[in-house]
């Protein structure tokens, strides 16, 4: 029985920072942001928005567009790294909001938890819920997995231009219309790392940027190796001489902290996969230099980063590799369309890869690609750190869902904020909950947070605006 993603819905806050304004204010070349990072507009939340109301807004859209009632849903998981409470799970806030629309107690029969592992937890949530359905514990009901986050970094840091906000809600069912997960091949890797973390009470993370980039590449590659071993062992993919497993994966969606990272991840993976194949000769001929190797190929990430001679040579090689015809063809076919949403929204942490997947569906469809039967490979990464690689096949009925996708329309009319307004929102000064910049309509917003010294400390109240 195929199980997978039947449909998905997104919510993106209406405010954004234009990256030209941002570049000017920070004294950065705008080309660096557009091409070096891959960002044009960065979504930011208004004063009356948090990850829970973004999650509820995405879920309500998913339910409305599919005519779902609470009784149709047996489980609701929210994966986030922007938790609001050390104990109370985010999905309970979401249920509270949805019950304002569907009636008090209407979700009582359901279950679910909040999941945390930086950006990768949504993938674990999908995997667990797919298995809940495969185990027939679901009583004919569907699961909803929502990924929702606000990516917020320190003002003035080099991570500031990799912010963003938004949520994706996914309907997980048997016989899905959109994508059926491949079974027995999902692969994970996990280690204890401090590439990016946010200690209790701190609003912005501590991040070791270059270390996190390299760690991401290595972890996804390791999970991919394990995926490959399983895919061959279980006969999911049959490799002929001279082929790479990536030849059998039509679309690739990876975690997108920023668009350029997706390109780097694809380059890293293809170098790894093609290095021992006959086509590598053609690559080297076009690149014009041999692929460098680190002084200590078995060294740690620190020792590799400290090997400046290698790092420089490798960067040069990577950039030349990314200009080869073979890389370019693979990038255009498998990944380019997944980066379009990221450019307009920014990092969504847990939701980034799924927004990228949605983006590739819409833009591949719009350029006339027949998606039926196409295999999608996912490379999910969460700092701290864990990677999950899995795949699925697009189902014959995909057009029912994909033909109606329209990113700009679904985001809705957006408002550009000035750098002063952005910094005010970032620092949480100058505006109260009832003084939002955008006038919300038909969505959930936050109206009250119990004061620290009151009996209702931290209690959050939301309302559906009409
Ligand atoms: P940076 O200092 O901006 O890096 O930090 P850079 O100076 O190397 O520049 C970036 C790119 O811009 C380079 O291209 C430059 O050449 C290019 P690349 O070599 O990478 O191809 N560039 C230009 N391009 C055109 N015109 C110009 C120009 N100037 C330079 N004039 C960094 C970048 C990502 C490190 C920083 O923003 C950061 O720390 N971000 C946060 C951490 C992060 O996103 N890490 C990614 C991997 S870890 C991850 O994804 C997990 C995460 O999402 C958290 C989670 O799991 O929860 C973060």
Short synopsis of the structure:
With 466 residues, the protein is α+β, with helices and mostly antiparallel strands. It is built from 16 helices and 17 strands. Helix 4 (90-102) links the parallel strand 4 (73-79) and strand 5.
Small molecules held by this entry: 3-hydroxy-3-methylglutaryl-coenzyme A
Number of helices: 16
**Overall spatial form:** globular
Distance between the termini: 41 Å
Work out the radius of gyration. Answer: 22 Å
* SSE-based structural type: alpha+beta
Helix content: 25-40%
DSSP strand tally: 17
The average pLDDT score comes to: 97
Percentage of β-strand residues? 15-25%
Largest sheet, in brief, is: 10 strands, mixed
Low-confidence stretches: none
Describe the structure.
It is a single chain. The mean pLDDT is 97. By secondary structure, this protein is of the alpha+beta class. It contains 16 helices and 17 strands. The two termini are 41 Å apart. The strands form 4 sheets. Strands 1, 4, 5, 6, 7, 8, 9, 12, 13 and 14 form a 10-stranded mixed β-sheet that branches. Strands 3-2-15 form a 3-stranded mixed β-sheet. The structure holds 3-hydroxy-3-methylglutaryl-coenzyme A. 3-hydroxy-3-methylglutaryl-coenzyme A binds next to helix 2, helix 6, helix 7 and strand 13.
């Amino acid at each position: 029985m195929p199980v997978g993603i039947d449909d998905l819905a997104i919510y993106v806050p209406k405010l954004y920072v234009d990256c030209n304004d941002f570049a000017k204010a920070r004294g950065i070349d705008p080309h660096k942001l557009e091409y070096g990072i891959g960002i044009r507009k960065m979504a930011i939340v208004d004063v009356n928005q948090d990850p829970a109301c973004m999650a509820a807004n995405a879920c309500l859209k998913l339910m409305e567009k599919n005519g779902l009632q609470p009784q149709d849903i047996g489980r609701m998981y929210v994966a986030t790294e922007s938790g609001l409470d050390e104990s109370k799970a985010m999905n309970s806030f979401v249920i509270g909001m949805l019950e304002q629309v569907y009636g008090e107690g209407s979700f009582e029969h359901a279950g679910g938890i909040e999941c945390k592992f930086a950006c990768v937890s949504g993938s674990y949530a999908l995997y667990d819920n797919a298995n809940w359905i495969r185990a027939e514990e679901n009583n004919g009901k569907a699961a909803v997995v929502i990924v929702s986050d606000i990516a917020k970094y320190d003002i003035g840091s080099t991570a500031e231009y990799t912010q963003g906000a938004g949520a994706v809600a996914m309907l997980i069912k048997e016989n899905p219309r959109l994508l059926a997960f491949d079974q027995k091949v999902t692969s994970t890797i996990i280690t204890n790392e401090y590439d990016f973390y946010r200690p209790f009470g701190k609003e912005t993370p501590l991040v070791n940027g270059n270390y996190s980039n390299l760690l991401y590449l290595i972890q996804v590659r390791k999970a991919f190796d394990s995926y490959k071993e399983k895919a061959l062992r279980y006969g999911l993919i049959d490799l002929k001489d001279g082929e790479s497993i990536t030849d059998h994966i039509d679309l690739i969606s990876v975690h997108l902290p920023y668009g350029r990272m997706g390109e780097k991840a694809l380059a890293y993976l293809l170098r790894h996969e093609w290095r021992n194949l006959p086509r590598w000769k053609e690559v080297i001929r076009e690149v014009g230099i041999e692929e460098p190797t680190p002084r200590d190929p078995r060294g740690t990430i620190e020792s590799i980063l400290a090997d400046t001679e290698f790092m420089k040579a490798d960067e040069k090689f990577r950039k030349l590799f990314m200009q080869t015809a073979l890389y370019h063809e693979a990038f255009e076919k498998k990944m380019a369309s997944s980066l379009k949403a990221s450019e307009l929204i920014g990092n969504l942490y847990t939701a980034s890869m799924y927004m990228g997947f949605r983006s590739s569906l819409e833009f591949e469809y719009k350029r006339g690609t027949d998606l039926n039967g196409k295999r999608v490979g996912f490379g999910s990464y969460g700092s701290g750190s864990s990677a999950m690689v899995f795949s699925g096949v697009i189902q014959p009925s995909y057009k029912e869902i994909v033909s109606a996708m329209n990113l700009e329309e679904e985001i809705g009319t957006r408002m550009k904020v000035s750098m002063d307004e952005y910094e005010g929102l970032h620092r949480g000064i100058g505006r109260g909950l009832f003084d939002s910049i955008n006038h919300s309509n038909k969505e959930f917003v936050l109206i009250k947070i119990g004061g620290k010294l009151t009996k209702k400390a931290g209690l959050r109240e939301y309302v559906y605006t009409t």
